[in-house]
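Lab notebook, bench 4. Still working through the backlog of constructs that have no structural model yet. Next entry is a single chain of 159 residues. Request: give me the structure tokens for it.
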Amino acid sequence: MNIRTRVQQLEQPHSQPETGEAALRGSGKDSREGLTSQPTPPRRRRGGQKGNCNAVRHGLYSRKNFEANMAWLKENTDLGRTDREIFLAVWQIAEAVHRDPSNKSLHASAVSRFYKLVMRKFGIKDYRDTGALDFALAQVERDIRFPPERFAEIVRHLV
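Model written out:
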């Protein structure tokens, strides 16, 4: 191959890709776009990644399970709506600890939900009001009390 043929090949647009501003000319893009772009990361495998606990969390908090449990509790107990929600929150705490003992984030979100429900029921505005919280927790314990065999029966039916 002689030098003239090689130079002609290099001058053809498809033989060497344009880079930088030359590549952006005529494309209608801003000349600054694309100059600092990072390479795309490798694609992840489909599905949840290792250590992903979404199935555990969303199984506990799924609307379908919540509504089924609320309906069952309404038919089979004399608890009011808020007390049923609080009972389910306590059950969810126990389930979270049982299903994934090392997932502190899941435990914390279950406990947080329980406290929010108790605070809403008793009109407590600030979580730092420990006196009101102590009173509210004692009331909840008194209001939602079942004999052990009845409690075991209820828990068996929860999804």
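Notes after review: The first helix runs from residue 3 to 11. The chain has eight helices and no strands. Flag for follow-up if needed.
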